[in-house]
Amino acid sequence: MHTVLCFGDSNTHGQVPGGLPTSRYPFPQRWGGVLARELGPSWHVIEEGLSGRTTVRDDPIEGALKNGRTYLRPCLMSHAPLDLIILMLGTNDLKARFSQPASEVAMGIGCLIHDIRELSPGPEGKQPEIMVVSPPPMRDDIKQWEQIFKGAQAKSHELALQFEIVADSLEVHFFDAGSVCSCDPRDGFHIDEVAHEALGTALAREVEAIGWK
């Protein structure tokens, strides 16, 4: 059996667009659950999605626990051995309080890749496969979140290119979620069940294409 860790934010957690912070799609509807269904019983899919999670930044309002880099290492150690790690982060780094361009958000993804390789949580202590997934761009209308994400919409359209540059330079797999799904208009930055289905199915094909012994 192969094991994949899906490490992300609220769109990995499955938060319902426009709903309460505790509103969450059931596992079969989340992209991680769709991925599990599509890959079949020879794969164990682990979801590690946290709403508000950043790549490498402590959140001065929501707390240091939202820093993805701080949690990633113990998470990898807890679930090792891992054959594949899928990273889908970046949206929360675009909050106005961080003042980060898309290129530096991508650099944060690069830091996570380096941390994974340093720990080597693959089978027999080897390097696991890594796939970077850029989140779908935000919509222009993000409702009551406009001030929190002020200026983020334009930056969100730059993430795919910047993430792909980092992924190529570090020789890891890359997938643009925006190529198969878009954010729901109910809040402008979360994905609905239709998008989860499309993303999980597309990622399953990407995972299969890697080639596994």
UniProtKB/TrEMBL annotation:
Q: Which Pfam families match?
A: Lipase_GDSL_2 (PF13472)
What are the residue boundaries of the SGNH hydrolase-type esterase domain, all occurrences included?
A: 6-190
Which keywords are on file for this protein?
Answer: Hydrolase
**InterPro entries linked to this entry:** SGNH_hydro (IPR013830), SGNH_hydro_sf (IPR036514)
Q: Name one GO molecular function term.
A: hydrolase activity, acting on ester bonds
Signal peptide, first to last residue: none
Q: What is this protein called?
A: GDSL-like Lipase/Acylhydrolase
Q: What is the lineage of its organism?
A: Bacteria, Pseudomonadati, Pseudomonadota, Alphaproteobacteria, Hyphomicrobiales
